[in-house]
Amino acid sequence: MENISEKILILDFGGQYSQIIARRIREINVYCEIKSYKTSLSEILESEYQGIILSGSPSSVIGPNAYKCDPELFETGIPILGICYGAQLIASILGGKVERASAREYGSIKVVFSHTSILTRSLYPEGICWTSHTDHITEIPKGFTITAHSDNCAVACMENTQKNIYATQFHPEVEHTVRGDEFIKSFVYKICGCTGSWSVVSFVKEAINKIKKQVGDKKVICAISGGVDSSVAALMVHKAVNKQLICIFVDHGLLREGESDLVEKVFTNRFNLNLIKINAQSRFLDKLKGITDPETKRKIIGEEFIRVFEEEAKKLEGVAFLCQGTIYPDVIESGLENASAIKSHHNVGGLPSIMDFEGIIEPLKYLFKDEVRKVGREFKLTGDLLYRQPFPGPGLAVRIIGEVTPRKLQILRKADAIFREEIVKSDVVMPPNQYFAILTNTKTVGVMGDERSYDYTVALRAVNSSDFMTAKWTKIPYEVLEKISTRIVNEVENVNRIVYDITTKPPATIEWE
Ligand code: XMP
How confident is the model at residue 349 (pLDDT cuts 50, 70, 90)? Predict the structure, then answer.
């Protein structure tokens, strides 16, 4: 990101906390970026970072395939902080020694700090810190001093102030580390010299000016889905170029009850956006006829979506730009090449370069999800869309097991609406972050009145998760489940049985397909 006077780089070695480090730095109003440890030294130098943090890693510096950065990095004079693996890497590259301990040090431990170090002074004399490591530094490199230790770890922190290199074996970014934010502040403010002038609001102002300049008097199109990312991206571009933005909303007929109307209403009535809604329900249903394989369904929907979008876009004249709702975690994931192909995700933000656009506009490319929501709030986007739970691009098609038919969609929509309504009404202690109904393709025998029935089983799924990479099933009180079950079997025709999914992710995924 150009035009930002203060920024920190997090050189990512695949550590599970890299994004948390980034969040912590942005929370103290300093912009930061995450880049792969493979990033070349020249690229790093070009960006003129105020400081660099080397992250944790699943790799071991003493292993045969250790992830390494360019050793010249340590000669640049840019302040460097190594965290966990990053600390061991510093020791190993600069001539210290790293060995495997007989036991792993894990959890909250007491660390004793020196008050002579700018970095550790704020935690002096001791504090509770979160740690998780087996390798440890047994010999510090020449020129370094030890500035913290614990019972099991002689080198909890070390530094070489001449070279501006600092290292910590524990994780200051994790909330279990008491006053870890002070430690990070000391590095970012006192050692790197940042002043904390960045904020999401200032970022948005700048981004809007940039979009204005980039677009000039040309036109931009944007596919919106009702999801928070594409909505906020569209609102930003709208703010910049007003009616030169044309939004395309493809209703593929796989949305939840009331959703299509809500999206249309919000964007046309409330925000006065130039919106073209395409009713493509029958097109998608035709393509899905007879298809039962989950991956095939996903691919068909993804491809059809692009086709519909492309046809519509070609009808418009003078469109030079495509706006996408890509957010920072998407950018990081693709940059680190670590996305696993468990399901082929389909997002409107992920349209491939299907047309000859002069350029792509991705206003949220540098923001995390909660920052995107902050921007949404600035634009007065309200709760229904701002806090909309994640909804997969292929929509209800991946929540109907087996073939998708209009009748099944009708059944699922009704059951799902009842489930959502009852969860909102209830006061579940840890409300689920995502919850929905699934129409299984299992039919079972039941009895309704005096009659035998042979109808569908609906499954309910509700999970608590912060990143949706892992999830726990929500402990919905029995009375709430009971009410939902009773309502669904009474109010939705062709459903005679309800089951609740009590599987975590992993091993299950959140969606059923
Ligand atoms: P899974 O089922 O893989 O889902 O545990 C993780 C999260 O991703 C959502 N999901 C999708 N989101 N396009 C999306 O934008 C998709 O194709 C897609 N498939 C799953 C899912 O709802 C959950 O929040």
Answer: very low
Is CATH 3.30.420.40 the classification given to domain 399-500?
no
Q: 436 CA to middle of ligand 1, Å?
A: 12
| Per-residue model confidence as pLDDT tens digits over 478-513 | 999 999 999 999 999 999 999 999 999 989 999 999
Looking from the CA of residue 398, the nearest atom of ligand 1 is 19
Domain ranges within the chain, ordered by starting residue? 7-191, 200-386, 399-500
**How high is the pLDDT of residue 340?**
44
For 379-421, write each residue's pLDDT tens digit.
999 878 898 899 999 999 999 999 999 999 999 999 999 999 9
Cβ 335 under 6 angstroms from ligand 1: no
The answer to whether 415 and 390 are in contact (CB under 8 A) is: no
- Cα separation, 34 vs 23, whole angstroms: 11
Q: In the block, which residue shows the tokens 């395409």?
A: 278
**C-alpha to C-alpha distance for 288 and 405, rounded to whole angstroms:** 8
Give the residue-averaged pLDDT of 160-180.
95
Q: What is the per-residue pLDDT across 252-276, written as a single tens digit (0 to 9) for each?
A: 999 999 999 999 999 999 999 999 9
Task: Please give the mean pLDDT across all residues of the chain.
Answer: 93
Neighbours of 250 (CB within 10 A): 24
**Ligand 1 pocket check: which of 501, 510, 513 to mutate, most ligand atoms within 8 Å of Cβ?**
510
Q: Please report, for residues 17, 51, 89, 334, the alpha-carbon distance to residue 69 in angstroms, rounded to integers and kept in the order given.
A: 18, 15, 9, 19
Q: What is the pTM of this model?
A: 0.83
Residues with Cβ within 8 Å of residue 203, at least 6 apart in sequence: 31, 366, 367
Please choose from 296, 509, 511 the residue to mutate so as to test ligand 1's pocket, defined by most ligand atoms within 8 A of CB. Answer: 511
Residue 49 structure tokens: 């970072």
Decide whether any atom of ligand 1 lies within 6 Å of the 464 Cβ.
Answer: no
61-85 exposure pattern, b = at least 16 Cβ within 10 A, e = fewer: beeeebbebbeebbebebbbbbbbb
- Which CATH number is associated with domain 200-386? 3.40.50.620
Confirm whether 7-191 and 200-386 share one CATH topology.
Answer: yes
CA of 189 to the centre of ligand 1 (A): 38
CB-ligand 1 contact for 468 (6 Å cutoff): yes
Residues recognised as catalytic: 84, 171, 173
User: Domain 7-191: which CATH class?
Assistant: alpha beta
pLDDT band for 429, please (50, 70, 90 cuts): confident
Q: Is 501 in the pocket of ligand 1 (CB under 6 A)?
A: no
